[in-house]
């Protein structure tokens, strides 16, 4: 049985009204399991205006200046760059090795935390790309110049929302700030295709934060098997650890007052 292969299931980054969240809670709601639901993050989003011109007008003067400088710098050094949107499965599969290689050279790749950081992850994303592309729910934004990929943004589509999934910038071209061009292209694409929002996630990138409309809560749900050693694990994580942290904070406060 598949249930014999796990003791704890960890679901993250779900909207509070998600059908998937409801399904998981219904499936594991019996006495055989323990459920722990909590707000894990606040996910950023960009709401779509009526036009790209309207969107740009809503940006700060300083950000509009930085966007213009970035574009001028790229065009000056490389000529006209190519900013493309790929949705066809075969084109995306052709580009996957190149974007995987780019990410391996970015800071995420060098620190081993990238989406394509090992063979298992690469196989997972290749399959994910195939499945979403077949249903027209995948979008790859690529900025190319001088026959090189400067930056890309890998996105998934659900319920008229574009979900920001993975991105990377070529380390040799980081000073051009190519990522902002990718984001603006994504906004333009969403407006043209009648989408409501871009879901950015929990990132703290300066440019992304400057573009956000707001943030909303994302739910995390842990499912534990209801047996003795798993109940101990559950208690350690959600009862003992918070209590120890609270006691430690109280003791530190007392030490400061005594000093």
Task: Give structural notes.
It is a single chain. This protein has 259 residues and is α+β, with helices and mostly antiparallel strands. It is 47% helix and 28% strand. The chain has helices at residues 19-27, 52-57, 61-78, 89-105, 107-110, 119-134, 179-192, 206-211, 228-258, and strands spanning 8-14, 33-47, 82-86, 138-145, 148-158, 161-169, 197-201, 214-225. Strands 1-8-2-7-6-5-4-3 form an eight-stranded mixed sheet, sandwiched between helices. α4 runs antiparallel to α6 (119-134). The N and C termini lie far apart (59 Å).
Keywords:
single chain, 259 residues, alpha+beta, eight-stranded mixed β-sheet
Briefly characterize the structure:
This protein has helices spanning 19-27, 52-57, 61-78, 89-105, 107-110, 119-134, 179-192, 206-211, 228-258, and strands spanning 8-14, 33-47, 82-86, 138-145, 148-158, 161-169, 197-201, 214-225. It is an alpha+beta fold and 259 residues long. The chain has an 8-stranded mixed β-sheet with strand order 1-8-2-7-6-5-4-3, sandwiched between helices.
Strand-helix topology:
Elements (H helix, E strand, L loop, with lengths): L7 E7 L4 H9 L5 E15 L4 H6 L3 H18 L3 E5 L2 H17 L1 H4 L8 H16 L3 E8 L2 E11 L2 E9 L9 H14 L4 E5 L4 H6 L2 E12 L2 H31 L1
Parallel strand pairs: 6-7
Antiparallel strand pairs: 1-8, 2-7, 2-8, 3-4, 4-5, 5-6
Helix pairs in contact: 4-6
């Amino acid at each position: 049985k598949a249930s014999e292969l796990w003791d704890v299931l960890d679901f993250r980054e779900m909207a509070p009204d998600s059908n998937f969240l409801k399904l998981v809670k219904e499936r594991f709601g019996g006495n055989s399991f323990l459920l722990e639901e909590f707000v894990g993050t606040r996910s950023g989003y960009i709401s779509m205006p009526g036009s790209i011109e309207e969107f740009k007008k809503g940006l700060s003067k300083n950000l509009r200046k930085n966007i213009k400088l970035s574009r001028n710098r790229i065009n000056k050094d490389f000529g006209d760059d190519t900013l493309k949107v790929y949705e066809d499965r075969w084109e995306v599969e052709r580009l996957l090795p190149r974007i995987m290689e780019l990410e391996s050279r970015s800071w995420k790749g060098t620190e081993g935390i990238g989406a394509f950081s090992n063979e298992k992850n690469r196989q997972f994303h290749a399959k994910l790309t195939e499945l979403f592309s077949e249903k027209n729910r995948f979008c790859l934004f690529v900025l190319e110049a001088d026959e090189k990929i400067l930056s890309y943004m890998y996105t998934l589509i659900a319920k008229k929302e574009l979900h920001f999934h993975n991105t990377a910038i070529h380390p040799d071209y980081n000073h051009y700030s190519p990522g902002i061009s990718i984001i603006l292209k994504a906004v333009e694409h969403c407006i043209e295709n009648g989408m409501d929002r871009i879901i950015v996630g929990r990132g703290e990138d300066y440019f992304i934060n400057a573009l956000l409309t707001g943030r909303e809560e994302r739910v995390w749900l842990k499912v534990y098997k209801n047996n003795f050693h798993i109940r101990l694990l559950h208690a350690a994580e959600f009862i003992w650890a918070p209590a120890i942290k609270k006691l430690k904070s109280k003791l530190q406060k007392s030490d400061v007052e005594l000093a």
